[in-house]
Design goal:
Layout (H helix, E strand, L loop, with lengths): L2 H22 L8 H13 L1 H16 L7 H13 L4 H4 L6 H23 L7 H29 L13
Helix pairs in contact: 1-3, 2-3, 2-4, 2-6, 3-4, 4-6, 6-7
Amino acid sequence: MNPIRYGLVLLVLVFIQGTVSGVLAIGQVSPDLVLIAVVYAGVRLGQVPATGVGFVAGLLTDFFSTLWGLGAFSKTLAGFISGYFHRSRRGARPLNAWELAGVTFLAALVHNLFYFALFSAGTELGLWTLLLRFGLGGAFYTAVVALGFGFLLFRRGAGADPYSEADE
């Protein structure tokens, strides 16, 4: 997928996340659809491209935030971490849907840790309350949605590699 297509996908996901997140929310916790795209870029493209995708994705989400740069920083970290699971580090075998969900959970935990630690700095908001309620809950919910996304990828074709570069 070329950079323009990634950019368009990110724009669509930011729009969906901004408009439909209330419908997807359980309590006050909603999945981070943009983060799932960043993790997918990490396992598909590798660490350096995913770091760039994370930065751009974070900037796009920062347009709807009061703290500029916080989304860019935390999603850049998530892209960097998810790039560790690129096939060049694992061999030729692609991740399965469960492994994709696990990588998403790990990346979302790191993302949320930094996001809420910086978000709560200088405020009366409790960091541990934010992390336990939104950080852990959001990471789990995002991983569950990524699991469904992973199952859809593998159903796309019998035995097809959803991480192949064939559509480049």
